[in-house]
Amino acid sequence: MSAVVGDAGADVAELIAARLRDVPDFPQPGIVFKDIAPLLADAAAFGAAIHALGDHVRANHAQSVDLVAGVEARGFLIAGALARELNCGLLPVRKAGKLPPPTVRRTYTLEYGTAEIEVPLGLLDGRRVLLVDDVLATGGTLRAAAALLHEAGGTVVGLGVLLELGFLDGRALLDGLAPLHALLRV
Ligand code: AMP
Asked: What pTM did the predictor assign?
């Protein structure tokens, strides 16, 4: 069996790995969906994962983070908890059509299809943002979200995910944007 790895150490990586559910052929044939619901439903494990991500971010960013931005919808769950852990504000990166104007919008491709996301204008001016999601797959979502946050006036100082699907090499697509923190890499 190969070792369980992640940027905040083997213990938290193992804790997450043990609470992910693989769902073959969802939402379409050929995709193995990584369901984080069992992790979220386990109070101690969810708390430990958020605490580990917060500690890792604090240790790796000399300057503090002002805002945690999360990508709709599962990214919201991570972002809300992490914002409290880091004592930061929260910013939703939403699917197109949900936010009142003014916003900036971008279309991108993901592992299964295309998507369009939006970021509100007027909240970001010069603020330091940590952008988070549940899963990093091809990297298209975080790349598009980071570009929007930048366009809206923010500075993306870090990227955080619970799980990185290493075989899709999303990390390469994010190269040069901001440091990536992944609690588990498979
Ligand atoms: P990507 O833009 O390809 O990096 O895809 C990341 C986004 O799609 C995240 O918001 C994930 O929630 C979702 N996603 C992509 N692939 C998977 C997967 N295999 N299991 C669970 N979520 C996924």
From this structure: 0.97
